[in-house]
C-alpha cells in the first residue's frame, strides 16, 4: 500500500512516496538549507524590530526586550511537543518508520527551546521581580514540559531496538500530550491559590504593535530554524538506521 | 472477562501477601522520607504545618512510584506476562486486574498510614481525614499512570530511575490537587472541588490508561 | 528607537546583563545544537 510506485500525472503527487526514508532523505537535504536561510533572515529582522523599532517599555525599561526570545521559545517548545507527538502517533498507528524518526529528530530541538524559555524567563524575572526563579504558572509548566522532553529522550536512549524505541516513545509522547492541558491548569490553579495576586511574566496588557510584530517575526524565525534542524537531524537518523541498505552504501561512496 | 480479572486480582494479592516485606518496606520508606523533611527544615510547628500536606504527598508519590517496579517484574521474569499477552481475554482487562491488586498492596497501606504522618506535622483532625481521602482518590491515578511507565521500561537498563523520570512529571497534577485539598481543609476552606477533581482524574485514568498499558506491554515484548 | 550610542545599547538601561545574558545563552544553545549536528553527520557519513 505504501509502495514507491508513483501515480500518473492526473492523480497529482503521490505523497506516500515520501513516507520512505530513502525518498525523503534527498528532499530533506534540499529543503533544510532554505529553511535555515529563512530562519537566519527572520532572526535578523525580528531582532532589528525588537531592538531598534520597538520602544522602551514604560514599566520594565529595557529588560522587557527579553520577550522577543522568551515568548517565541516558549511557544515553539509547546508546538514542537505537539508535532513530535503527532508524528510519533502516526508512526505508531501506521507503522511507518520515517514518522518515528521525525519524532526522535524533533525532541532535542524542543527541549532546547524549553530550556531557552526557562533561562530567559529567569533572567527576565530577576530585574522585574527580584528573584532568579519565579514560580509563575507558565514557567513552572515549562519546567514540567522540559522533564517530559527529557523523559522521552531518556526512554528512547535506553532502548536499543530502534523500532521499540519509536513505539515506546510514541506511547509516552501521547500520554504526555493528554497530560499537558491537565498539568497546565493544575499548575495555574496552584499558582493563583498560593500567591493571591499572581506574580506573572505576562507582558503589558496592551502591547505596542511593534512589540507584537517583533515577537511574531521571531516566532517564525524559530519555526524555520526548528524545521531546518529537524530535517538535518532526521537525515542523520536515517543514515544511522538504514546503514546496512544499498542506497546508503551508494550514498556514502558518492560522499567520499 | 470479569472472572479473569477477579482471578488476576486474587493471584496478585496472594503473591503480594507471600512477599509481605515488600509492602512493609514501602510503608517504612514513606515514613522515613516524610520524617526527613523536619530534620532538614527544623521543628518549628508553624512551618511544619505549612509544609506538611505537600511533604506527605511527595513522600506518598515517591513510595508509590518505587513500588511500580514490582508490578510487572516477576511476571516478566517467569514468563507469565507472555501468557497474559497471548491469552484470549483482552489484555486491558488483565491489566486492570493487576493494577487494582497493585493498588491494594502498594497504595492502600500508604492511605492508611498517612494520617499518622499528618499528625507529625501538626495537621488538624479534619485535615487528616481529607488527607487520607485525597490519597485514596488520587493514588489510583498514580498506579495507572505509573503502570504505563512500568510497562514502557520493562526490562530496560536504568530501570527505576528512568521510570521515575518518566512518571513523576505526569504525577504533578495529582500532587498539586491533593496537597491543595489538605491545605484548604487546614485553612478552614472547602476541599470538595479538589477531591472531585482528583476523583475525575482517577476515573479518566481508569478509562484511558489500560489501553496505553496494554499497548506499552506489547511494544516491550516485540 | 534610537540608542544614544553603542555603549547605551550595550547597557540596556542598566539591565544589560539580563538582556544580553538571555540572547548570549540562546545563541550558545543554537551553536551547540548546530555543532553537535555537524559532528553527528560526520560520524554517520563515515563509511
Gist of the model:
Chain A is mainly α. In chain A, 75% of the residues lie in helices and 0% in strands.
Please, could you describe this protein's structure?
The complex is a heterotrimer of chains A (256), B (222) and C (47). Chain A is mostly helical. Chain A is built from 7 helices and no strands. In chain A, helix 3 packs parallel to helix 5 and helix 4 packs antiparallel against helix 5. Chain B is mostly helical. Chain B is elongated. The longest helix of chain B has 30 residues. Chain C contains 2 helices and no strands. At the A-C interface, helix 1, helix 2, helix 3, helix 6 and helix 7 of A face helix 2 of C.
Outline the biggest β-sheet of chain A.
Answer: none
Cα-to-Cα separation, first versus last residue of chain C? 54 Å
The value of Rg of chain C in angstroms is 18 Å
Per DSSP E runs of 2 or more residues, the count of β-strands of chain A stands at 0
Low-confidence stretches of chain C: none
The share of residues in helices of chain A is: over 70%
Q: N-to-C SSE series of chain A?
A: HHHHHHH
Helix percent of chain C reads over 70%
Helix and strand layout, with pairings?
The complex is a heterotrimer of chains A (256), B (222) and C (47).
Chain A: H1 21-53, H2 67-94, H3 97-129, H4 137-158, H5 162-195, H6 209-241, H7 246-255
Helix pairs in contact in A: 1-6, 2-3, 2-5, 2-6, 3-4, 3-5, 3-6, 4-5
Chain B: H1 2-18, H2 20-41, H3 45-67, H4 69-78, H5 80-86, H6 91-120, H7 125-152, H8 159-186, H9 192-221
Helix pairs in contact in B: 1-6, 2-3, 2-6, 3-6, 3-7, 3-8, 6-7, 6-9, 7-8, 7-9, 8-9
Chain C: H1 6-11, H2 16-45
Question: Can you give keywords for this protein?
Answer:
heterotrimer, B: 222 residues, mainly alpha, 9 helices, C: 47 residues
Amino acid at each position: 500500500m505504501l509502495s514507491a510506485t508513483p501515480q500518473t500525472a492526473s492523480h497529482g503527487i503521490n505523497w506516500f512516496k515520501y513516507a520512505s526514508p530513502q525518498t525523503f532523505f534527498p528532499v530533506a537535504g534540499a529543503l533544510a538549507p532554505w529553511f535555515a536561510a529563512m530562519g537566519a533572515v527572520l532572526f535578523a529582522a525580528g531582532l532589528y524590530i525588537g531592538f531598534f523599532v520597538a520602544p522602551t517599555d514604560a514599566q520594565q525599561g529595557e529588560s522587557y526586550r527579553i520577550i522577543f526570545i522568551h515568548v517565541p521559545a516558549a511557544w515553539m517548545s509547546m508546538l514542537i511537543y505537539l508535532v513530535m507527538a503527532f508524528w510519533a502517533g502516526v508512526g505508531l498507528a501506521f507503522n511507518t518508520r520515517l514518522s518515528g524518526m521525525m519524532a526522535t529528530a524533533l525532541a532535542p530541538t524542543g527541549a532546547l527551546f524549553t530550556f531557552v524559555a526557562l533561562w530567559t524567563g529567569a533572567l527576565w524575572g530577576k530585574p522585574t521581580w527580584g528573584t532568579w526563579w519565579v514560580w509563575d504558572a507558565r514557567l513552572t509548566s515549562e519546567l514540567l514540559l522540559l522533564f517530559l522532553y527529557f523523559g522521552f529522550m531518556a526512554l528512547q536512549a535506553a532502548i536499543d531496538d530502534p523500532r521499540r524505541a519509536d513505539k515506546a516513545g510514541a506511547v509516552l509522547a501521547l500520554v504526555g500530550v493528554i497530560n499537558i492541558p491537565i498539568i497546565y491548569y493544575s499548575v495555574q490553579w496552584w499558582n493563583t491559590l498560593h500567591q493571591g495576586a499572581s506574580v506573572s511574566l505576562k507582558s503589558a496588557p496592551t502591547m505596542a504593535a511593534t512589540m507584537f510584530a517583533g515577537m511574531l517575526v521571531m516566532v517564525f524565525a524559530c519555526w524555520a530554524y526548528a524545521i531546518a534542524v529537524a530535517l538535518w537531524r532526521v537525515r542523520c537518523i536515517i543514515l544511522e538506521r538504514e546503514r546496512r541498505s544499498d542506497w546508503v552504501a551508494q550514498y556514502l561512496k558518492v560522499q567520499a | 472477562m470479569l472472572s479473569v480479572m477477579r482471578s488476576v486480582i486474587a493471584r496478585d494479592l496472594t503473591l503480594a501477601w507471600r512477599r509481605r516485606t515488600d509492602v512493609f518496606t514501602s510503608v517504612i520508606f514513606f515514613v522515613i522520607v516524610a520524617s526527613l523533611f523536619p530534620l532538614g527544615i527544623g521543628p518549628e510547628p508553624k512551618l511544619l504545618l505549612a509544609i506538611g500536606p505537600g511533604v506527605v504527598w511527595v513522600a506518598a508519590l515517591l513510595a508509590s512510584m518505587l513500588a511500580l517496579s514490582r508490578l510487572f517484574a516477576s511476571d516478566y521474569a517467569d514468563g507469565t506476562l507472555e501468557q497474559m499477552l497471548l491469552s484470549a481475554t483482552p489484555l486491558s482487562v488483565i491489566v486492570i486486574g493487576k493494577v487494582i491488586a497493585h493498588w491494594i498492596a502498594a497504595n492502600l497501606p500508604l492511605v492508611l498510614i498517612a494520617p499518622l504522618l499528618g499528625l507529625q506535622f501538626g495537621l488538624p483532625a479534619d485535615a487528616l481525614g481529607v488527607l487520607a481521602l485525597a490519597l485514596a482518590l488520587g493514588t489510583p491515578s498514580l498506579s495507572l499512570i505509573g503502570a504505563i511507565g512500568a510497562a514502557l521500561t520493562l526490562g530496560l537498563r536504568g530501570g527505576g530511575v528512568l521510570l521515575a523520570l518518566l512518571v513523576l512529571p505526569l504525577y504533578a497534577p495529582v500532587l498539586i490537587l491533593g496537597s491543595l485539598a489538605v491545605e484548604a481543609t487546614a485553612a478552614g476552606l472547602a476541599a470538595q472541588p479538589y477531591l472531585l477533581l482528583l476523583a475525575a482524574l482517577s476515573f479518566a485514568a481508569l478509562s484511558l490508561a489500560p489501553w496505553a498499558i496494554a499497548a506499552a506491554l506489547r511494544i516491550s515484548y516485540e | 528607537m534610537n540608542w544614544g550610542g553603542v555603549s547605551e545599547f550595550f547597557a540596556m538601561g542598566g539591565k544589560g546583563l539580563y538582556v544580553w545574558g538571555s540572547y548570549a545563552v540562546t545563541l550558545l544553545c543554537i551553536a551547540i545544537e548546530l555543532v553537535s549536528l555537524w559532528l553527528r553527520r560526520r560520524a554517520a557519513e563515515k563509511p
